[in-house]
Amino acid sequence: MNHVYADHAATTPIRPEVVEVMMEVLSTHYGNASSIHSVGRRSRQFLDDARAAIAKSINGSFNELIFTSGGTEANNLAIMGAAEAMKDRGRHIITTKIEHHAVLHPCEALIKKGFDVTFLDVDETGRISIEDFEKALTDNTILVTVMYGNNEVGTIQPIREISERLQQHQALFHTDAVQAFGLEDINVRELGVDMLSVSAHKINGPKGVGFLFVKDGTPLSPILLGGEQERKRRAGTENIASIAALAKAAELAQSERKEKREQLIEIKLTLLKELDRLGISYQVNGSLEHALPHVLNLSIAGVDVEAMLVNLDLAGISVSSGSACTAGSIEPSHVLVAMFGQADERLRNSIRFSFGMGNTAEDAKKIAQEVVAVVKRLAS
Description:
alpha/beta, Aspartate Aminotransferase, domain 1, Aspartate Aminotransferase, domain 2, 2 domains, 7-stranded mixed sheet, 3-stranded antiparallel sheet, 14 strands
């Protein structure tokens, strides 16, 4: 069976070139980058080279990068660290209802600590209204955290417009760019963000490593206490092998970004065209205009998402829903609830296809054909 992996928004296969870098460092450069002897200095060189290369890729500077254990830690550090550092200036935070749980849960934890959090609504495409954002902004607001592109439906938020509204405001601006980095043209100066989160395993790098961009001068309290690594902002001996691998993955992603975007958009459109040709009834959840190139969320009429996922898996196709399967039941996606409401049928029949390395237009045709076959089988 020719297996098709179409769940790249969940995680991506690691590239051979990245494995090669990681294995070299693991095998030969075991020193602690904080040590002053030659073995430690060699590890420090890998760390410094990685920091310089990644910072350059987003138009940041060397000292504006904090290496983390991934996107979740980067988001937690941005939100919890900014709230702690800014609490004497106010206790209001603005976010959205469709954020990743690595943003929503820290915000909910801050509510229990006495902070006030506004969760902005989204329209049926998953996009916030700038007018709603402006109404929510107060003199007491200290942090705005809005994701760049959504992991379930792919909708891109108006990041530049938000940053423009914050130019004369005290609030710090953080964006979770975990799904966007490597596919979107990210320039932190043009975006106007104070903090930006990235994870390696979404760009064909290893799991367990990422970074947080923190604009120079941004108030931020550490959430891990220990040594003085990362300029006292993130304690813990640096994971040199994974950081070097992250830098290699970022380099490859940036060098191939334009070509990859075109390929991913072609795959998405091929899937839709094939579904149209085969006469299947579906709706696109999200926006095709303001969208990440690799994510496509479809509501397919007359099917149950759990049955569809199982049947596609048996056919050798790996996809997902925005739902979490718990004890045999489906928990509705908080993203789709925010977009459509609690009672909408799309909460029960929506599937996320997300493409990446190794996928082709032929894969999209195969997926469409199998989806139709499953729909007919379930209907009978």
